[in-house]
Design a protein that fits this description.
This protein is mainly α and about 45 residues long. About 80% of the residues lie in helices and about 0% in strands. It has one domain.
């Protein structure tokens, strides 16, 4: 892994921590949360 890629990942983790602090320690749950939000929007439209 190159230093630039590592810093980019670190930057994303920091950003996600501001959006949802609990996901700072669990990035995987953040992906599931995003999928749930998308599915919730689809259900709202239907």
């Amino acid at each position: 892994m190159e230093p630039d890629q590592h810093m980019e990942y670190f930057y994303i983790v920091i950003l996600s921590s501001f959006i949802k602090k609990s996901d700072f320690f669990m990035p995987i749950t953040n992906k599931f949360a995003i999928k749930e939000k998308i599915s919730a929007r689809k259900n709202a439209l239907v």
